[in-house]
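User: I'm putting together a teaching handout on how multi-component assemblies are represented. Below are the sequence lines for each component of a complex, exactly as they appear in our records. Could you produce the 3D structure of the whole assembly as structure tokens, so the students can see both representations side by side? Please keep the chain order the same as the input.
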Amino acid sequence: MTKRIESLKVIDNKPLKKDFFIIELESSGKLPEMKPGQFVQARVDRSQETFLRRPLSIHDVDFVRNTFKLLVQVVGKGTESLSKLNKGDYLNLIYPLGNSFTLPAKGARTLLVGGGCGIAPLLYLGRYLKSQGIIPDILLGFRNRDRILEYNDYEAVGNVFLTTEDGSAGEKGFVTGHSLLGKARYDKVFCCGPEMMMKAIAGLCRKNNTDCEVSLENLMGCGIGVCLCCVVDTVKGHLCTCTDGPVFNIKELKW
Amino acid sequence: MVKLGFSIGDLQFKNPVITASGTFGYGSEFDDFLDVSRLGGIVVKGTTLEPREGNPYPRMAETASGMLNAVGLQNKGIDYFEKNIYPRLSEYNTNVIVNINGSCIDDYVALAERINKLDKIPAIELNISCPNVKMGGMVFGTNPVSAREVIKAVRTICIKKLIVKLSPNVTNIVEFAHISEEEGADSISLINTLLGMSVDVRSMKPSLSTITGGLSGPAIKPVALRMVWQVANAVNIPVIGMGGIMNSDDAIEFILAGASAIQVGTASFIDPQASVKILEGIENYLITKGFSDIKEITGLINKSG
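Assistant: Of course. Below is the structure of the complete assembly, with chains in the same order as your input.
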């Protein structure tokens, strides 16, 4: 798959609840093939404090309109700067990067689990699964009801279940405690979110002998496998999250 | 046409833009972005005798105008390199240089002997300046006695061009340049990263698993330029300058200060096409200024009148 460097036009930058936002970008040409789980490296600006690019998950893609979305949380100066992009601005990306989620077999009972900003890659994954005839269960965890993001979008691609830490929507607690996990059995679980959450889901999947893939968010330098800064410890030694990942089967990880 | 070539002894480079070790993988990572064969040379990832896993994550911290890394020479070792990487590398029409690292003199010698047998590798870069390994690396490059020993030992058996990569983490860089030249180095490259550190105030822990790491990027450019200027004035072998070069103006600064060639490092992380853009920029600069050969401006600031 060919990677490219391109300045894409910002056609929307929509603030969501709290510190989240969705940037929609339009390519002047034809979008390359982009798979669920892949990411982009975004050039922030020329500020001395945001020297490196920022890795961001591909949230959704519309090949007909030649557009795609990035769901981003403000966590520092780089993402704060991105949140201020205006319609008509251009954002320079290296994309698409990384491997992708592995499509389960037809008829596989599939669960997507996401927490906080980790829900970002799961929408495109859900849409892709749906197009392949798989309607996934989607379990999303947020701190409280004010932090629920893009519920309707997820509802359109699967059966959504919620948890909030304060119980203000869905079941109270963390995703790992949701009653769904005690009842339903899955053939494949895809997970993205805080590392604590992914480790807990990985533990459950190991116990139930369920195939599980997680998408990691390690700090990156280059995004193309040359700086070797974003490594994760695996059964095959240190692997780059940017090129060997970001998606790893939990069997590969030393968790 | 502007002449951009330079040479180290009888080894010709078509232009002075080389990619720095550890920032350009083995070239193929950049095939989607540029034609690697346009470059004067590429220095491939630091190679050791045995495979190395490198340091634990986290290994990187962004800093003002730069970054710290503590990769620790992760690589698959010389056997893997010979078998799986070398055959691909020889397809590039450019000088492919291998950066070698050891934890003792015997390691360096053994590596140089292995490279001697690889026809398509015309030069080695002797890395005595890696700040991220406990044994070897910078330990050699910051002690004049051990620097001399390792350069002498490698020179004795090395049939390739020998480039010595110096550490900036010394009081007197010129001393190490003199030692390199006296022991028969064909060229000197500098600077490797500057030892630095960063603390994460949120977690109240060091940002790097190794606490300290190597600083690169524009933050170090003035220091690098000063050292390149000092060394270029002190030796009669070609000097390859690097340290925070992000664009062609940066590169030209080093050339005017006396560097025969430059290496592009961290810039390739932010713009994978940085190296070819710098090459084009240097050519345009020479044309605009009315020069026909880059040698006319090499060390120009040091020439009187």
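A couple of points students might notice: Residues 47 and 78 of chain A are 9 Å apart (CA to CA). DSSP finds five helices and 16 strands in chain A.
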